[in-house]
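Posting for a labmate who doesn't have an account.
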Amino acid sequence: MHPGDHAAIFDLDGVLTSTSARHEQSWAEAAARFGLPVSEAALKATRSVPRASSLAALLAHAGMTMDEAQRNAVMAFKDRRYQELIAGLGPMDAFPGAREALETCRRLGLRTAVASASLNARQVLERLELIQLVEFVADPRDAAPKPSAEIYGRCCAALGVFPQSAICIEDGAPMIANLRAEGMYTVGVGVEPLGADEQVAGIADWDVARSLEKLSAR
């Protein structure tokens, strides 16, 4: 296979930047607004989880129920507040090495995509000034919620690349396990072992060319 046959598909939060604190703050404010008691642990459980699933988890933690109209109101409030919080993002909020990793992928001929659970991934990438280096941003509404590997499959289809020719850069162990089960090559980002084909502490430590060589040799 040639490099043009391959893709690098990135998770967003925890890989290219960190938006977790802003997500948690917007959920906390939405919970306070609608009388939903939450703990720090419950808020952390919303990381990299779709909005509806996050609210369901918060409601379960609080032992509460809401009808559809109430749930939609909470989620709408949360999204508006999150939009306000990410408006202050800028290029300096990208992780060290994030731009360089994307630029290296493009230089080596890899197609690039972002597979995030966030509905605001494109806006975040625009604020970080990375959007011009990403060919496709997946819409999480078009795939089963993470940690399903379906959103990565959507990226492969959009880029015209076989899943077995994709390098997936992720920071979640359950997500990595499902990607590997689909035959995708995985790069884990983080300090704790994630069970990936290879792992780096941060995106700045990723050797793109080395991963491409390993994938091509499989």
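Reply:
Got it, the structure tokens are right above this. The longest strand covers residues 166-170.
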